[in-house]
Write a structure and sequence with these properties.
Layout (H helix, E strand, L loop, with lengths): L2 H13 L3 H5 L12 E9 L7 E9 L3 E2 L4 H10 L21 E9 L2 E9 L2 H7 L12
Antiparallel strand pairs: 1-2, 1-4, 2-3, 4-5
């Protein structure tokens, strides 16, 4: 009876692409490898020098941080191997009002440094195209 939960856990880890990390023993004194740590900031306008509208810290595997939906966001990033440009988009109707926001995200993903910057026509589009990873407080579409 014990084999089923272990098998289920291994399948879940393998599905997230973390099996090589689960099988690697931790080096003495080194912290265990995590999925990633990301700082996400949303700025008004077409440049990151614009006023800061919202920011969040996202930690993945284990999940945490100040992001409003860390579990869902980490799973989406895991499916895209930490690449925001490859995160599946949500199909959602957004207004065509041009009120640009620039998103800047940087951190690490499985030990590699990551950086992402993109300007979206408005916050709704930013939320939809990021699978709601960029849907930070105070916005709720």
């Amino acid at each position: 009876m014990r084999a089923r939960p272990v098998r289920t856990a291994l399948l879940a880890v393998a599905a997230l692409g973390l099996l090589p990390f689960a099988a690697t023993p931790a080096t003495a004194g080194a912290p265990p490898e995590t999925g990633g740590r990301q700082h996400i900031a949303i700025h008004e306008g077409t440049d990151p020098s614009g006023p800061l509208l919202a920011a969040a810290y996202l930690r993945c595997f284990p999940t945490g941080g100040s992001h409003p939906t860390p579990e869902a966001s980490c799973l989406k990033l895991a499916l895209a191997n930490g690449d925001y440009a490859r995160v599946p988009q949500l199909h959602r109707a957004c207004t065509k009002i041009y009120q640009p926001v620039t998103v800047v995200a940087h951190g690490t993903w499985h030990g590699k440094t990551t950086a992402y910057k993109h300007t979206y026509p408005n916050q709704c589009v930013a939320n939809a195209e990021s699978g709601d990873i960029f849907n930070l407080t105070p916005w709720r579409d």
